[in-house]
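Next comes this protein:
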Amino acid sequence: MWFMDFVTYMLEEMIKDTKLSLGKCCKNAYKKALEPHHPLLIRTAAKAAWLMAPDRVKMYQLICSMNKLNLLENIILLSIFF
């Protein structure tokens, strides 16, 4: 449930400000949805993950690719980055 909140907040951030980097959108969503439920070690690791987030174009290409993977599989692959 918290992960779906995170995804919802992330998409809201992306829609609200199209100039925000994907990492910043994820960081803002994480603060709202997941950070209150994580210990310090996980919060610290999450901060590092946002710095390594791919740009929006790469994310869109991954989700919308025309290869044999379906959308759900692409979203699972995307979640590996985070």
